[in-house]
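Hi F.,

I've been meaning to write this up properly since the lab meeting, where we talked about keeping a consistent format for the predictions we share between groups. The idea is simple: the sequence comes first, exactly as it goes in, then the structure tokens exactly as they come out, then a line or two of notes. No screenshots and no reformatting. I'm using this chain as the first example so we have something concrete to point to.
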Amino acid sequence: MIKFIAGKKGEGKTKKLIDMANNAIKTTSGHIVFIDDDSRQMFEIGRDIRFVSTENFPLSNYREFIGFVYGILSQNGDIVEIFVDGLTNIIKTLENEDLVKLVNKLDRISKDNGVEFVISMNSTPEELPEEVRALII
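Output, unedited:
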């Protein structure tokens, strides 16, 4: 399953995502990963959540991001949720067409590996393709 949190900068998307991750660790029996484009939020994330910063891993398109996710999953088969903060900051170039391709690929990864994705991005729902708008929480 994939869920999106969309909105303009400063609308509280990161706080909501952090709260969701910190609450999820209380109820899940598997591992949780939090991916961010920098380390600013690292100390707000619960210590039982694996924090991954992409600062040193420049990801220029959605295919590289998928490879990054596969790398994380290959290291731990017990991951049940992956939270991604600021998708448009992590992937430097992400057009709507590529966003749909990314969602389709993440959906396949989710089904094949039993992993739920919750992703925030700096876009208003109106700016997103219909396929992504349907996933906004």
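Notes:
The radius of gyration is 14 Å.
The CA atoms of residues 59 and 68 lie 8 Å apart.

If this format works for you, I'll send the rest the same way.

G.
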